[in-house]
Amino acid sequence: MSTIQIFDPALCCPTGVCGTDVDPMFAKAAADLDWAKEEGIAIERFNLAMDPQAFAANAVVKAFLERSGEDALPLILVDGEMMLAGRYPNRAELSRWAGVSSPKLNPVPAGNCCSGGHCG
């Protein structure tokens, strides 16, 4: 299975979900990453404010920051290869990158099943 590394911008806490005024983007990302971990997906997260050495020690991340700056974070690497920048991945992306298929990923939309639990 692949390892997904997330290089976060400088956050006040490891997830960005803290304080009284939480950005909904961070809340959704935290929920999606928790889901991915429950699915067995290997995820490592690095916060620029708390783990600056992780940013400096990774050549891909260091070059990205020199080229694009901190405002372009988050940066997502899969097995060391840059996959996404500027936003957090959704569950479908996390699942695809890790090679995980989850029935929880694509629930049946409400109203698409007949009563009695027998879909036709």
From TrEMBL:
Q: Which processes are annotated in GO (biological process)?
A: negative regulation of DNA-templated transcription; response to arsenic-containing substance
Q: Name one GO molecular function term.
A: DNA binding
Transmembrane intervals = none
Q: Which superkingdom?
A: Bacteria
Pfam families (UniProt xref):
ArsD
**Protein name according to UniProt:** Arsenical resistance operon trans-acting repressor ArsD
The record ties this protein, via InterPro entries, to:
Arsenical-R_ArsD (IPR010712)
